[in-house]
Specification:
Strand content: under 5%
Number of helices: 11
Largest sheet: 3 strands, mixed
Structural class: mainly alpha
Helix content: over 70%
Length: about 325
């Protein structure tokens, strides 16, 4: 493996990182990604001006990502496997997905729209001030499905490729896409490099995530619907990676997601995702379970591959 670990050890490190994340959750104060976001904002303000915005954006990306990734690589070389696991824990967002979305489901179930709007506004960029219960449930469900890939499965994939530094590299790149990858006058050229790099890094993880959502459909009808939604709806979505993930996830859950949403006071006509009924409060928990089950599935796959390799070594020793 490029990570430098044998597959059995890698499977153990992946499991340890996930368990640490589920046990501790994100740090309450001084979260590294929050600090990185502040650093990225400073770099952006310094460089996002004048001409050659694309080149300035590429330089900003390099200045933000490469020194930290290199530092992680150097430290892992000194500290060994324990630091790899710790870096994976810092980069994972599995428990935080639950902690940010389940209160929205609880507020909607209690009929507390004001609280649900406030909580939803923390995790999505669309306007929620006047959103109804169905729109809030849809926004939270979409966020869970998409960020399951960004905050969990993409991170696990790149950890498998390059260990702790790989997870750090991916999460920093993904964070810059979330900050700069907008088609607005300010970021259209400056953030183009960040957006395209994230598209490349996420290409394989997103499709493995979409495939996993299909596999975990509760019935054969769910699986077929998820596959159909991926193939027919994802090409119409603006993001080449979010499309497959959300279309297959919505299809597996039997939900009609996507469609119109309000951003910065303007109605945006978005393509449909999935097929079935509109999302409701309890579907937020269903989406969370799908993400959690997918995580377990990936760990099982890693464990099975590790077991096969171990048996092969024993049999042919």
């Amino acid at each position: 493996m490029l990570s430098g670990f044998s597959l059995p050890i890698l499977a153990g490190l992946l499991t340890a990182g996930v368990l640490l994340d589920l046990l501790l959750g994100e740090t309450r104060r001084w979260h590294p990604l929050v600090g990185f976001g502040k650093l990225a904002s400073v770099i952006e303000r310094l460089l996002n001006r004048g001409r050659a915005r694309f080149l300035r954006g590429a330089l900003a990306w390099l200045l933000a990502v490469l020194p930290i990734t290199y530092a992680a690589w150097c430290l892992c070389g000194l500290a060994g496997a324990a630091l790899h696991v710790f870096l994976l824990y810092l980069c994972l967002g599995l428990r935080s997905l639950r902690d940010h979305n389940q209160p929205i489901a609880a507020a909607l179930a209690a009929g507390d729209l004001d609280t649900a709007r406030r909580l939803t506004a923390r995790i999505v960029s669309r306007d929620t001030a006047n959103a109804d219960a169905a729109s809030l449930a849809k926004a939270s469900t979409e966020s869970l499905l998409e960020n399951g890939n960004d905050a969990v499965f993409g991170t696990l994939f790149w950890f498998a490729i390059a260990g702790g530094p790989g997870a750090v590299f991916f999460r920093l790149a993904n964070t810059l896409d979330a900050m700069w990858g907008y088609r607005t006058p300010r970021y259209d050229w400056f953030g183009c490099c960040a957006a395209r790099i994230d598209d490349v890094l996420n290409y394989l993880p997103a499709r493995l995530t979409a495939l996993s959502y299909i596999v975990l459909g509760k019935s054969m009808a769910d699986k077929k619907r998820a596959w159909h939604c991926w193939r027919t709806q994802a090409p119409n979505w603006g993001s080449p990676n979010a499309g497959p993930v959300m279309a297959s996830g919505a299809g597996a859950l039997g939900l009609a997601l996507g469609g119109d949403a309000v951003y910065d006071g303007e109605l945006e006509r978005r393509p449909p995702l999935g097929s079935g009924r509109p999302a409701q409060a309890h579907d937020i928990d269903r989406a969370w379970r799908l993400v959690m089950e997918t995580t377990v599935l990936w760990l099982i796959w890693a464990g099975l591959l590790a077991g096969l390799i171990y048996m092969k070594e024993v049999c042919f020793a």
